[in-house]
Amino acid sequence: MNKGHISVQSENIFPIIKQFLYSDQDIFLRELVSNAVDAIQKLKTLSRKGEFKGSTEDLRIKIEIDPDKKTLTISDQGLGMTEEEVKKYLNQMALSSANDFLDKYKDEGTGIIGHFGLGFYSSFMVAKKVEVVTKSWQKDAKAVKWICEGEPEYMIEDATRDQVGTDVILHIEGEDEEYLEERTISDLLEKYCKFLPVPIQFGTKEVPVETATDESTDEAEDKAKEVETEEVPNIINNTHPLWKKNPTDLNDQDYLDFYDELYPYSDQPLFWIHLNIDFPFHLTGVLYFPKIHNQLEVQKNKIHLYSNQVYVTDEVKEIVPEFLTLLHGVIDSPDIPLNVSRSALQSDRNVKKITGYITKKVADKLKELYNTDREQYEAKWEDIGVFIKYGMISDEKFYDRVKDIVLLKSTEGEYHTIDAYLDKIKDSQTDKNDVRVVIYTFHKDAQDSYVTAAQDYGYDVLLLDQVLDNHFIQTVEQKWDKVRFVRVDSETVDQLVAKDEEKETALSEKEQEKIKGIFKDVLSLDDHRLEIRPLPVDAAPVQIVKPEFMRRMEDMQRMQSGQLPGQGLGMHQIVINGNHPLIAQKLNNMRSEEKKVDFTKYLYNLALLNQNMLNGKALTDFVKQSLDYANS
């Protein structure tokens, strides 16, 4: 057996870094600032251990742009490097100083960000030349400068630096000069560094100076005076974000203020969950239930994933089930396995554990609200109902946890759990096959005539108007025994709940064929879409119904094409009430062919009006015809 060593050509490594190491070159700033945070955290650890005797008060990172020199500088007041350390960590790729530090100070190194030893090299994604000026914390250490122009060659020379710490100076030219613009850097700091644990200064800002007011001064003169201001460092980050604090030290306003910090100008959240777990993994965070407004897509990608307060991504589908992406907030865990560039998650057992933990915490919070404040739970149902139904449809474990707290709302505004509602309608809405039939409408006002007819018949009607209800009712039908949902316009009222009852029409078979023939000719209908039934005398003379299976199929097609389920007429059936006087007497006895055509159109338009499908010229003609009939 022969053994050998794989050869890596160093001159090829920089193009690989520039093109393939990171999916987004903006990340270079996150990596360099994270390194600066680590340098300061390490110095604080040495101070706690008594090895560093200097002050660690007010340590910060500074970001500076010099448009004239075309440089972007990231400066820290951390532990710095000796010349030997520069050669070791900057000249040997993928050798992490963080790992070395953690090995030495295992119990003191929490909060250290870097692990791979590659973050520094992301600077070459935007810089033509990189200079590092650094001075170590160690006694009598001299400052040194490391210079590299994106090639394997580098230079090290003596330098001047008064304080302990490191400056990373990026020389930027050409197409990457956008990173010399204040707005660009400000946006990147806002995105990636907003909650890092060390203060980050980017320029200065003007703030008002509080001055005592002379009460004897005339009010007009006071107003005329200019407000005095002073220039102070512009600290861009919140070093102690809410999710890192103890929940017992926080009140509702703290959570609302933090939500406003995350999502300015958004509606207030409904409620929230504070995540805090140490075993079997470390995870903190805050998840908010937003007002969904019966929408799904626009709400997603609002959970931000952090690792040790470093922003990673808002694509959290690997650790958060699909339905939980409707939530907003922050998840922070140093145990989430990231790839080298920290831009994506890797498959890992911890990820599944975290997913299960978050799902359980969300379900527990919902059950707590249901059990402790049912009134508030019902008041928030319009928003949390969409979320819960989404979870029931897509996640079996979540379904098991919340199936007893999902609510059904009647058209009268009453809320019931599924079991309670099925018990309520057991006597009145159980069909001949012992199946409980749940009757519902998607819009109480638009389908008022159908809803009223069902209620007059002694039935209860639910309001199912949320975007996922088409899927939700199928889930209930699958999970609950002998339950069937039918929309209020899927059948004539006497057939919504099928019974073993036979009724007769006032029309003879010959007269029925005659009436069907008139409708077929006038409306150009196929025979299978037309039916005469012995409906109650006070029921509408003509009704338009759409069988439940057909409507569901059409609604599924609409959702797949990006449209919301609706009332559209589509494939429908026309039911003629053979017992209604306008059919059995008036139309049946008409002799004038012209009048038969007009009257048939009138009855059909009346049915369309009940479906809210009559509009434009047809509505104008219908109103005119109604007046004519009233005056005749």
From TrEMBL:
Database matches in Pfam families: HATPase_c_3 (PF13589), HSP90 (PF00183)
PANTHER family per record: HEAT SHOCK PROTEIN 90 FAMILY MEMBER (PTHR11528)
Name this protein carries in UniProt: Chaperone protein HtpG
Similarity-based family: Belongs to the heat shock protein 90 family.
Feature: compositional bias, Acidic residues: 212-221
Gene3D superfamilies registered for this protein in UniProt: 3.30.230.80, 3.40.50.11260, Heat shock protein 90, C-terminal domain, Histidine kinase-like ATPase, C-terminal domain
Domain of life per record: Bacteria
Gene field: htpG
GO MF annotation list: ATP binding; ATP hydrolysis activity; ATP-dependent protein folding chaperone; unfolded protein binding
NCBIfam families documented for this protein: PRK05218.1
Region (Disordered): 209-229
Binding site for ATP: E31, N35, D76, M81, T166, R342
Record keywords, A-Z: ATP-binding, Chaperone, Cytoplasm, Nucleotide-binding, Stress response
